[in-house]
Specification:
The complex is a heterodimer of chains A (453) and B (87).
Chain A lengths: L2 H6 L8 H12 L4 E7 L5 E4 H18 L4 E3 L4 H13 L4 E3 L15 E3 L24 E5 L9 E5 H5 L12 E3 L7 H12 L3 E5 L4 H10 L4 E4 L1 H10 L2 H6 L4 E4 L6 H10 L4 E8 L3 E6 L6 E2 L12 E4 L4 E5 L7 E10 L2 E7 L4 E3 L2 E3 L1 H9 L4 E11 L3 E10 L9 H15 L8 E5 L16
Parallel strand pairs in A: 1-9, 3-4, 3-5, 4-6, 8-9, 10-11, 11-12, 22-23
Antiparallel strand pairs in A: 1-2, 6-7, 12-13, 14-18, 15-16, 16-17, 17-18, 19-20, 21-22
Helix pairs in contact in A: 2-3, 2-4, 3-4, 7-8
Chain B lengths: L2 H15 L21 H15 L19 H13 L2
Helix pairs in contact in B: 1-2, 1-3
Classes of the chains: A alpha/beta (453), B mainly alpha (87).
Chain lengths: 453, 87
């Protein structure tokens, strides 16, 4: 596999690139592992590039015959999703990825053909539909938003915008990539596209259980770990120390939530020399910027001057971050709140996450960061509980670290956490409900939910 | 556990969580004056009682502050007793 052949893919039309890459890699190194599913478990299964290419060609032939108006990818397996994307792209058939919580939106795509893991276009599915004119239909991809800020909605992308962030240079070739994201969402799609376009190995653990993830990373030689801060925190605070020691991570790419300094410090001390970047992206805007210096937030001088790619950042008076992708596009309010701390702007939370207690605003991220800094606290979640008396009340749950120094007990940790909050926070920000949980629930996007469950 | 016990427990938990002196609770005590409970304390008490008794009598009729009718521990016991009777 010469680097030049992969780099040349950038010359192909964007919608052809995924199928072209899979077929090219299958020609050169047919038995190279493309995907490992159920990694870290007994049901581990590996799929090589030859098998992937064969499935893409077979589906392309079917799509070429039936020419559906669009395809809704309803497959559960990530290898099927990749095959569907590649075949639909090169056959200029629009494709939609719908995560479980966005299945209600399928009504908007009623005339599209559903495709499951069998990868067989249902007989008669495309009958009576207007036959798409080959090559004149703008090839497109429909993705659902994560629903962090309201109910999920469908967003349409071109293949160009989907592939805009993919890095094809030689240093990215043949690496092991961890997939802990939902493979049908923007963040997950970005990971599998990147892995497959560069002849890499996509490794999907059997579950999000920290030990399973750590075993998958160690056994399958994953070197790049894209994750949300929440999933990374769970991994490094809860996984077996022996498994963590076997992991050989070069790079961690964080996204989906803001990153705090405490997590960055913990990560650096556990994986010395690891490169950490955090990506600021939304399903609507795609990747906006990337911070690679391993510090929280972003440099204060990024505000008000054009960044690489022509992106401009500004801040509304109330602290909301505004993004203008280019001179020709409108400024977009992101819903994310930032605050200047020294020479950085740091994220304080999402506008919609703000808890209002008796008329006063509480930023849950700040309270979470404080709780996580308390010795013995492994994870924390802060959320608003409805109250007829004060509107909302700050509630929190903490996960107590497995190994507590004697004679500490979980109750001691809870009392210490409350004492720290009383000392450092305004009265309305101190959690009034503080539960000890076995683990913190996460959304399917790998984020911490903000409202009471 | 009687409703009076649940109310006593909840108030004592609030006092303990906020690092105040945990004392014996008498029905005649004034919530604000004798026990020093503010609206946040009361909101916490209501959440604790919803967990132990399964009802929140305040939710059906939202107010923005402590109701004028609820001044003493025994007022609180009465409103929970009434709420627990209605299915």
């Amino acid at each position: 596999m010469t680097p030049a052949t992969i780099a040349n893919l950038a010359d192909a039309p964007a919608q052809d690139r995924l199928a072209a890459a899979i077929c090219l890699i299958a020609d050169k190194v047919p038995d190279r592992t493309a995907i490992v599913v159920d990694a870290g478990s007994d049901t581990r299964r590996a799929i090589d590039y030859a098998a992937l290419a064969a499935a893409v060609r077979k589906l392309e032939a079917e799509l070429d015959t039936l020419r559906p108006m669009g395809v809704v990818a309803r497959a559960r397996n990530v290898d099927s999703l990749i095959v569907i994307a590649a075949a639909c792209g090169r056959q200029h058939v629009p494709v939609a990825f719908l995560p479980e919580d966005a299945r209600d939106l399928i009504g908007e795509l009623a005339e599209w053909v559903p495709l499951d893991d069998s990868l067989v276009v249902p007989p008669g599915a495309a009958e009576g539909l207007p036959r798409g004119e080959f090559a004149s239909v703008p090839a497109q991809v429909v993705v659902a938003t994560s629903g962090t800020s309201g109910p999920p909605k469908l967003v349409e992308h071109s293949w160009d915008s989907l592939l805009a962030a993919a890095r094809l240079a030689e240093q990215w070739h043949g690496l092991g990539w961890l997939l802990v994201y939902d493979a049908t969402r923007w963040a997950g799609i970005q990971v599998w596209l990147q892995a497959v376009l560069t002849a890499g190995r996509l490794v999907q653990p059997a579950s999000r259980n920290p030990d399973v993830v750590a075993r998958g990373v160690a056994d399958e030689q994953v070197s790049i770990l894209p994750s949300t801060p929440t999933l990374l925190r769970r991994l490094i605070t809860s996984a077996d120390r022996g498994l963590l020691a076997r992991m050989r991570i070069d790079r961690i790419t964080l996204g989906g939530e803001a990153v705090d300094a405490h997590l960055l410090e913990q990560t650096k001390s556990l994986f010395p020399g690891v490169r950490i970047s955090h990506v600021y992206a939304t399903t609507e805007l795609g990747e906006v910027f990337r911070v690679t210096d391993g510090e929280a937030g972003f440099p204060a001088d990024w505000l008000g001057r054009p960044l690489p790619g022509g992106v401009r950042l500004s801040m509304r008076r109330d602290g909301e971050l505004l993004v203008q992708l280019s001179r020709d596009t409108a400024e977009v309010a992101t819903g994310d709140l930032v605050e200047k701390r020294g020479s950085r702007y740091e994220f304080t939370g999402r506008r919609s996450d703000v808890i209002v207690v008796g008329g006063a605003k509480v930023y849950p991220r700040r309270v979470e960061e404080l709780l996580r800094s308390v010795p013995g606290v492994a994870e924390a979640r802060v959320y608003g509980l409805p109250s007829a008396i004060t509107g909302e009340l700050v509630a929190a749950e903490i996960v107590v670290a497995d190994a507590l120094p004697e004679p500490a007990t979980p109750d001691n940790v809870r009392s210490a956490a409350l004492a720290v909050c009383r000392e450092r926070l305004e009265p309305q920000s101190v959690p009034r409900v503080l539960d000890i949980a076995k683990r913190i629930a996460t959304t399917s996007a790998g984020k911490v939910p903000r409202r009471s469950l | 556990m009687t409703i009076a016990d649940a109310v006593t427990d909840a108030i004592q938990t609030v006092l303990r969580d906020t690092a105040r002196e945990v004392r014996a609770i008498e029905p005649s005590m004034l919530l604000a004056t004798d026990l020093g409970l503010d609206s946040l304390d009361l909101a916490q008490t209501v959440v604790l009682l919803e967990r132990s008794l399964g009802v929140d009598p305040f939710r059906s009729a939202p107010t923005t502050g402590p109701r004028p009718g609820i001044r003493t521990v025994s007022d609180l016991i009465s409103i929970y007793t009434a709420a627990s009777r209605t299915p």
